[in-house]
Amino acid sequence: MAAALAILAAMLLPCWGAFPQFKKGSTKTNGARCSHHSECYSDCCLINLDHGGAFCVPRARITMMCLPQTKGAINIICPCQVGLSCIHKDPVCTRRCHLI
């Protein structure tokens, strides 16, 4: 097991700089193309299959459908704005942003 980890580390370390590095506080505005949610000022990079790509969009507002932020790069539904929580009050309805 240790040998396998050492081999994997030896293969990945030389090309570590080739992986994109994302930093918090990026300034891509809404409507800009993105490949990771951390690139967007709103922290939401939403996939848009109709336009063939992903774009920065605002976070969900109160009573809008939402999903909690995942570790994935692109969202299918955006997380809530700051101060709101993404919960479902009814088991059959989708999650929505609420004040708590």
Unreliably modeled segments: 1-23
Number of β-strand runs: 4
What structural class is derived from the secondary structure elements? alpha+beta
Specify the helix fraction band: 10-25%
The proportion of strand residues reads: 15-25%
Q: Please tell me the overall pLDDT.
A: 76
What string, H for helix and E for strand, traces the elements in order?
HEEEE
Number of helices: 1
Q: CA-to-CA gap between the ends? A: 46 Å
Radius of gyration: 18 Å
Strand order of the largest sheet: 1-2
Main sheet makeup: 2 strands, antiparallel
Protein name: Colipase-like protein 2
GO molecular function: enzyme activator activity
GO cellular component, one term: extracellular region
Subcellular location: Secreted
Task: Note the main attributes of this structure.
two-stranded antiparallel ribbon; disordered N terminus
Structural account:
With 100 residues, the protein is an alpha+beta fold. The strands form two sheets. The protein has a two-stranded antiparallel ribbon. The N terminus is likely disordered.
Quick synopsis:
The chain has 100 residues and is α+β, with helices and mostly antiparallel strands.
